[in-house]
Amino acid sequence: MNKTLVYLYDPLCGWCYGAGGPLPQVLESTGIALRLIPTGLFSGSGARAMDDDFAAYAWSNDQRIERLTGQVFSERYRDQILADRLQGFDSAPSTLALSAVSLTSPEHEFEALKAIQAARYVDGLDVTRLETLTAVLEDLGLDAAAQRLTCPDSGLLQANDDRVGQGRALLRRVGGRGVPTFVLQQADSAMQLLPASAIFSDPQAFIRELNVGVNP
Q1: Is 66 helix (H, G, I), strand (E, B) or coil?
Q2: DSSP state letter for 207
Q3: Cβ-count burial of 188 within 10 angstroms (0-12 exposed, 13-18 middle, 19+ buried)?
Q4: How far apart are CA 6 and CA 194, in angstroms?
Q5: Nearest to 6 by CA among 158, 156, 143, 110
Q6: 88 pairs with which residues across the strands?
Q7: Nearest alpha-carbon partner for 117 in 168, 83, 167, 66
Q8: Quick check: 125 and 119 in contact, CB under 8 A?
Q9: Alpha-carbon gap, residue 81 to 123, rounded angstroms
Q10: Is the peptide bond before 180 cis (omega within 30 degrees of 0)?
């Protein structure tokens, strides 16, 4: 099957975490390959400080995602992440960690993304710290990626910049609005933007949409 589901994401996007619930079922049901590309949406100019208003907005949004998908947003996350005014809302470190995985064990990037999200939203760990992210990767047995992340070299930094640039360019190309954005890539390089909302409201409809796209 010469078709791929391209997943444009940001590791600190609550909706991306929510998509991690139904997405494995989608992949298993369709047999389609997954390719992840970060967009850096909440890094650089998209990063921000955590304040009371933003924390309240995030928690309200998180509860909606939990109701739709069953993905857990714990009280520990609320107390140790959203209530911490010294911890910024910045996905750059997590994105760099996932680029390290992409370089060393690309087949484990989705697994690593889910582990980083669980570390934040369930365990209440600070994934803006490289030490936290290194430990997450080591727990997954991704030692090569953890080692690259401990002392990021120019190769890793350039690969990370390239991936984010590619993600942003593709988001513009397909007219995606934020993340998660899902794109069905055909063998002839044709790109089909998929309705991301369906993966939350009706995963079976999302599966049917993919099956239509993957039929010869």
Answers
A1: helix
A2: H
A3: exposed
A4: 10
A5: 110
A6: none
A7: 66
A8: yes
A9: 10
A10: yes
Give the up-direction half-sphere exposure of residue 24: CA atoms within 13 A in the CB hemisphere.
9
The pair of structure tokens assigned to 174 is 């397909």
Q: Is 44 left (phi over 0), alpha (psi -120 to 50) or beta?
A: left
Query: Could you tell me which of 213, 204, 215, 216 has the C-alpha nearest to residue 28?
Result: 204
Using only C-alpha atoms, what is the Rg of the chain? 17
Domains of the chain as residue ranges with CATH: 4-214 (3.40.30.10)
Residuewise pLDDT in 10s, the chain (216 residues) = 588 999 999 999 999 999 999 999 999 999 999 999 999 999 999 999 999 999 999 999 999 999 999 999 999 999 999 999 999 999 999 999 999 999 999 999 999 999 999 999 999 999 999 999 999 999 999 999 999 999 999 999 999 999 999 999 999 999 999 999 999 998 777 899 999 999 999 999 999 988 876 544
